[in-house]
Amino acid sequence: MARRSEHTQDEIRSMVLNAAETILIEDGLAKLKVRNIAMEIGYTVGSIYMVFDNMADLILHLKARTLDDMALHLQQVPSNNTAQCCLLDLSKAYLNFANQHFNRWNMLFDHTKTPESVTPDWYKHKITQLFRPIEYQFERLTPNASAEQTQRAAQALWSGVHGICCLSLSGSLDVVGVRDVEATVVVLVNSFVRGWASDLP
Amino acid sequence: MARRSEHTQDEIRSMVLNAAETILIEDGLAKLKVRNIAMEIGYTVGSIYMVFDNMADLILHLKARTLDDMALHLQQVPSNNTAQCCLLDLSKAYLNFANQHFNRWNMLFDHTKTPESVTPDWYKHKITQLFRPIEYQFERLTPNASAEQTQRAAQALWSGVHGICCLSLSGSLDVVGVRDVEATVVVLVNSFVRGWASDLP
DNA sequence: ACCTGAACACCGTTCAAGT
DNA sequence: ACCTGAACACCGTTCAAGT
Description:
Two copies of one chain form a homodimer. Chain A is an all-alpha fold and 201 residues long.
């Protein structure tokens, strides 16, 4: 046994990542097991621990990929409209992404698989970057606001949009479909933006 | 062995529930195991399956308890102030509860332990009731709004507050402490309420 | 050096067997 | 009827042993 050398370590690493992502998308995070992945790529469980520290490490990289895809998704939203309109579109785009890539989006907020381990800085940086488009629109909306105020507004609204997606798509809320969720998001964004702008110079 | 009859089924049931809650509070949901609970109450694992269908069933009842406690916590917020002030206080109370009972609050939004099983109606009803105080304040704020509009506003704001707690307390956001989170919540509530009220008659 | 696969510790759940 | 505890299936992780 052993010593096949059919693939480089880097190749195996991306094979693992791809197989894991496919399982995640199709069956959800709960169904993602080392033995599944190993089976899928034609290696044994031990091989996976050659290229990833453990399951938590693997999942962290799956999360990173998802954050990257989400960032791309948000970057495709036109930013030259009115600020309020852009914020609406960004929020709808977020809801859209969460809905279309439900299992991957859901994974982002599952903290059970990685208990109390410190999230690396490069991962936190990706999250920060995700807030940039929203912050940019708030800078356009209220140019005289301080950087701190802008950042807080972006955090408040973006977290708010996330919260609606969170409660709605997870079925905690009694909302019918995605259109219904979108209507709630629209109410949040419009009211918030109007209220925020009316207070700032 | 067996046939001790030291406790009735109902007694065992509440012993299980209490022991589980203690473990949950002290060590978090990830550390809650059947064998832990059995050890704690001086019975064996099999006994737990006499009084609960399975772990998911037990956790559901832990969630229900937490929702009840949260409802009590929110009911203690004075409701005779201005609507905006009351909504602020309610939001702060929610943040407060999430912070003080972090492990129990966190459990409410962990869907990994109970995969795709239908949430019973009595549980959904508890969630609906949790939105009542917020809806009530929106009724006071904009008396001419339709019931549907009021409900949507309550859902938008309350989900928003939850989203901030969610991202902040879980460390996804780069916020320093609870005071910082509260400031973000204040921004959300104030802006939203002002924007909402300015649009409705 | 690379990879295997058996082994380990630890889960939730079941159920024949005792009293 | 109540409760036990051994057994089962299934996890993530490790590591001595092969090539």
